[in-house]
Design a protein that fits this description.
single chain, 1091 residues, mainly alpha
């Protein structure tokens, strides 16, 4: 009989504690209470530690006999890897042990305890010290030993365990799968994930897998869990057909439990499945069991599974005609319905109709639920077909299930299917008040108020009494569809429901206002006073006030306001209604007076109050007033709401001053504004951000969209694609397109297709755009915008011949117009085919299509690119003689051509002619002038052009500053370039500096040897928020120069680390390498980043 270390030390510790207490009590006569307590605690601690160490020393040296090794001194757990390696493998000891006091029970208990704590080292130590030859261990303890030995001592596991098996009196029981040899092989092959050792173990015990199906199943499962295709294939080749069929379940189950489906090794898992298919298992036998297939499918669809794993599994199952069990199928279909994954749902439906026992191509009943929910959203025809099929096969859906489908029909505007469900329910007398109300909501959501009102007759016919909610809704719908008689009838019948009556009167008041019948609206108010005076509230008065103001009845509105004040019915909504009406009438002074009165009455204005002023100021184009209102809201603590932000997005779209546009867009930076919570704000924000080319905020808005649960409409999908295209994120464009077309089964409109074509063309994927156009032209009628987009792609890719093919198609379809001709001329002008472009201009005029300024600008740009500046000027003069007007873009094109080709005198003439054309220089004009003066070696003139523009209080963009820095570097004046940077940072009218400015300046300073200043500017650029990272070439150019100058240690540490795969070539490295070519190391390391 033995005791554990803890129990022994506890006994010693308790005894010592008692002794110490006695001693303390004996000695405490002369001690203070505090000293007595300290002595007790210290004595307890010392005696307990002493007892523990004595017992431990005795057990370790063998003085005290024990069957237990000390886990306290065992090293940390080192065994096991992979999924499931650290889990308790022993059953409760009461079920396993024959006798609590037997040696075998103590040994098994110790092994199970160590295995439960995942300590393989301790399990092996106990086994090697205490194994009893010929005495069988409980199965779970034997499994734990097998796993621990395979992981801790793989070189000894075969010898030790095979010897143990031979020592047993009854080694094998052929009729039992749980005989010790099988336990050992399973523990090694599948438990420890060492199928190679399991095979050696089977050979050592003369258990050939070719003859023993159980051994074959265990080893195949082990190899499958490891993703070992070769191991599986080698075993399968030697198995008889019957065993091979049974083994397929083992392989499938091993895959499901392996964790391969959730890792990068998912391709190995799919390879194993295809190996089974290649061997014809599904054809020659029943294939894997349903339980194994269910386990595999659920693992492939589980959280964390590798992308595409489930699709791969479904591919193989479908190829092998293997049936997916109903429970797993329903689970997957439900997930598809949640994610609106139509493509996968259809694949699963095909599998569900496969070779199930006795199914005959019929879906199991649980599969109809998720499929109908999904198809109700995305495929009305398919939903109807499934519903009829379900009835034909005798399945009777419950009232609750059909009510849920009706609710989905209202959410996704599926009127046809809702009517079909209602007909089914009415034919079986199953319609209830709740179902009628849901059906009414379907009609209302789709704007079919007439049909919603017609339900009233059906409700009465079925003997159902509408409640107050239904009466109120019916009155509302009757008013909306102009059925006033029905509205009056419903109002009379709902007399017993006071709440519904008040709401109904409000709708009748609004209806009268919509028809311009102000007097009738007042009659309704009087009727409420007479019949429902006890429930008359401010909402009724506010409705009538809105009628007066929208119909121009200002005097009656004033009189009503006085009555409302006398009755105490004025609230914040009343003031908002009055202010909105006054603002719409253009009387903003009176509206402001009402605002002051509102504050005086102790009512706090809200966002709706200020939105009236804000909308009017934006419509009038009074931007200073807009910002004054926004500041006023901030001062009063009134947060901008979604409507306020939508109004300001109009400012961003229309503002001619970039400062105003950026201030409007900065509203989106406020923490409480989430563009995905309101579709109107979402659409206006994306449109404004794309127009203003604010890529940073646009990227953030799109990231918010990806994280949200927003389901965009078809119109919003087009805008989303356009936004992703602006960021050149073609992958997201394709993902959104496929989600809309394939998963949601929505048909894109012409705008959405045009946006997708433009995104592909902008991303340089002209061929993909052409293929998509050919695919969808059968479903969506091509228009001029689509063709113009493709023509733009031909221009960017230099394909004038293909552009002419599109031109002939457009002519045949009668789609040639001003935009098409202009785009086609631009294609040929960019390609240098000026004769063809000029011929198209003549043909355009012959066809009665008058060219505009943009048309002439495209052709003039072509002549400027070729250096034919006189011809370009003659073309502009001819346009002016025909009554055309030159714009600043055309003048900039000519001016840029002069600068590029060194025609400075001609450029001076164009500059002098700017006032004659009544044109103001743009930011692009100033940039071109700065380049010109830089090339003419007149830096003072370049600076003066910029400063004169700033003195006129005109905004300049960051490109102007970059051009100024570049001009300084071109004239070998790095000090003036630094001076230009300081002016850019100091002047609020000069946007920037941006990353391009820093790139240009740092590269120039590096080439001129100003390394310290260049390093300072790198640090400055990295510290500026909202700035894109510097180009890697710029930093590597500086790093290489520092190496060459011997300053790498001193200054190089301040630079960002080099990108992966890149690295500066230091001069020290070059000096020690005889195989490297010599030369300018700085420029060689910089590559294309050289200035």
């Amino acid at each position: 009989m033995t005791t554990t270390l803890y129990n022994s030390s506890l006994v010693v510790g308790v005894a010592s504690a008692l002794t110490s207490v006695a001693i303390v009590e004996f000695d405490s006569i002369d001690a203070t209470p505090k000293a007595t307590l300290s002595a007790v605690l210290l004595s307890d601690l010392v005696w307990f530690a002493t007892g523990f160490l004595v017992i431990a020393f005795g057990m370790l040296t063998g003085i005290i006999p024990s069957r237990h090794r000390l886990s306290f001194f065992a090293p940390p757990f080192r065994g096991g890897s992979g999924a499931g390696s650290c889990r308790a493998c022993c059953m409760p000891t009461a079920r396993l042990l024959e006798s609590d006091n037997s040696p075998k029970s103590s040994l098994a208990e110790a092994i199970c305890a160590a295995a439960s704590s995942c300590n393989d080292f301790q399990v092996v130590a106990i086994w090697e010290a205490e194994q009893v030859a010929g005495q069988p261990l409980p199965h779970d303890a034997l499994r734990a030993v097998s796993q621990a030995l395979a992981r801790e001592k793989p070189q000894a596991v075969v010898g030790q365990l095979s010897a143990y098996v031979r020592s047993l009196k009854k080694v094998q029981d052929p009729g039992s799968n749980w005989a010790p040899p099988y336990i050992i092989i399973d523990g090694v092959a599948r438990g420890a994930r060492r199928p190679d050792l399991g095979r050696q173990m089977a050979d050592a015990m003369d258990m050939e897998p070719e003859k023993d199906a159980r051994v074959a199943e265990i080893l195949l499962g082990g190899f499958a869990m490891q993703g070992d295709l070769r191991g599986v294939e080698d075993l399968l080749q030697n198995l008889p057909p019957a065993a091979e069929c049974k083994a397929s379940s083992a392989v499938v189950r091993g895959l499901a439990r392996s964790g391969l489906l959730r890792a990068a090794a998912a391709s190995s898992a799919c390879g194993l499945l295809r190996l089974l298919r290649a061997r014809g298992l599904a054809e020659g036998c029943a294939g894997p069991s349903g339980k194994a297939v269910a386990e595999l499918v659920q693992a492939a669809a589980g959280p964390g599974s590798a992308s595409g794993t489930l699709d791969c599994v479904l591919d193989v199952l479908q190829e092998c005609n293997i049936f997916v069990p109903g429970e797993s199928l329903t689970h997957l279909l439900t997930d598809c319905a949640k994610r609106q994954d139509v493509a996968r749902a259809r694949r699963l439906e095909v599998l569900a109709r496969g070779r199930g026992p006795g199914e005959g191509g019929t879906l199991p009943f649980p599969a109809y639920d998720p499929l109908l929910k999904l198809y109700t959203q995305v495929d009305r025809v398919k939903a109807s077909e499934l519903f009829k099929e379900m009835q034909q096969h005798g399945f009777s859906p419950s009232e609750g299930f059909l009510g849920g489908l009706l609710a989905r029909c209202s959410e996704f505007h599926n009127v046809e299917f809702a009517e079909e469900i209602a007909a089914y329910l009415q034919g079986r007398s199953l319609m209830s008040l709740a179902l009628y109300k849901t059906l009414m909501k379907v009609f209302a959501c789709c704007g079919q108020f007439d049909k919603a009102c017609d339900l009233y007759a059906a409700v009465v016919r079925d003997g159902i009494e509408p409640d107050q909610v239904m009466y109120g809704c019916l009155v509302k719908f009757a008013v909306k569809c102009g059925r006033k008689a029905l509205a009056q009838e419903l109002l009379e019948r709902s007399g017993g429901h006071s709440g519904a009556t008040v709401q109904s009167y409000m709708w009748l008041i609004r209806a009268a206002g919509r028809d311009g019948e102000v007097g009738k609206a007042f009659e309704m108010l009087q009727r409420v006073k007479e019949e429902q005076a006890d429930v008359l509230d401010a909402a009724v008065y506010n409705s009538l006030l809105d009628v007066c103001l929208t119909n121009g009845a200002a005097e009656r509105a004033v009189a009503l306001w006085a009555e409302m004040e006398d009755a105490g019915m004025v609230n914040a909504v009343s003031y908002n209604t009055m202010i909105k009406g006054l603002v719409l009438q253009g009387n903003r002074v009176a509206a402001r007076e009402r605002l002051q009165d509102m504050r005086a009455k102790g009512l706090k204005p809200d966002s709706a109050t200020f939105n009236s002023f804000l909308g009017a100021a934006v419509s009038a184009g009074h931007l200073p007033e807009v910002w004054s209102i926004v500041d006023e809201m901030d001062q009063e603590g009134v947060a901008l709401d979604h409507y306020s932000a939508s109004i300001l997005m109009k400012v961003a779209r229309k503002a001619s001053n970039p400062v105003d546009a950026q201030r409007a867009l900065s509203v989106l930076d406020r923490s409480h504004i989430n563009v995905c919570e309101d579709e109107v704000l979402f659409n206006t924000s994306l449109d404004a951000l794309v127009r203003c080319r604010d890529t940073k905020r646009l990227a953030r808005a799109l990231e918010e969209y990806k994280r949200s649960s927003m389901r965009p409409s078809v119109q919003s999908v087009g805008l989303l694609i356009r936004s992703f295209g602006a960021l050149k994120d073609v992958d997201s464009c394709w993902a959104l397109w496929r989600q809309t077309v394939e998963q949601r089964s929505l048909t894109p409109d012409g705008v959405t297709l045009s946006c997708m074509l433009d995104a592909l063309v902008t991303g340089g994927l002209v061929e993909e755009a052409m293929d998509l156009f050919k695919e969808w032209r059968r479903h969506i009628a091509p228009n001029t915008v689509m063709y113009a987009t493709l023509l733009k792609g031909c221009a960017s890719s230099g394909q004038p011949e293909r552009a002419m093919e599109l031109h002939r198609e457009m002519e045949a379809a009668g789609l040639m117009n001003l935009v098409a001709y202009t785009t086609l001329i631009d294609v040929h002008a960019k390609a240098g085919n000026l004769e063809q472009a000029t011929a198209l201009l003549a043909k355009m005029e012959k066809d009665g299509c008058t060219p505009n300024t943009i048309t002439y600008s495209a052709l003039i740009r072509g002549y400027c690119m070729q250096g034919h500046l006189e011809t370009a000027l003659d073309l502009m003069q001819g346009m002016l003689e025909r009554g055309g007007t030159a714009d600043i873009i055309m003048l900039n094109t000519l001016l840029d051509g002069c600068v590029r080709h060194g025609r400075f005198q001609l450029a001076d003439r164009l500059i002098a002619d700017l006032p004659r054309y009544n044109l103001e220089p743009s930011c692009a004009t100033i940039s071109i002038l700065v380049k010109m003066w830089g090339k003419r070696r007149r830096l003072d003139s370049a600076f003066e052009v910029v400063r004169a523009h700033l003195r006129a209080k005109k905004q300049l963009d960051a490109q102007v500053g970059t051009c100024l820095v570049s001009a300084c570097m071109y004239n070998r004046a790095p000090e003036r370039a630094v001076e230009a940077l300081e002016e850019i940072k100091a002047n609020p009218l000069l946007a920037g500096p941006d990353a391009s400015t820093y790139d240009t300046l740092i590269a120039g300073l590096t080439n001129h040897g100003h390394y310290r200043k260049a390093v300072e500017l790198v640090e400055e650029a990295r510290s500026r928020s909202g700035l894109r990272p510097l180009k890697p070439q710029t930093v590597e150019l500086l790093r290489s120069a520092l190496c060459k100058a011997g300053l790498a240690e001193q200054l190089g540490r301040r630079l960002p680390p080099p990108a992966s795969g890149e690295g500066a070539l230091c001069i020290d490295d070059a000096a020690t390498s005889s195989n490297r070519p010599r030369g300018n190391l700085v420029h060689r390391a910089a590559g294309r980043g050289r200035c």
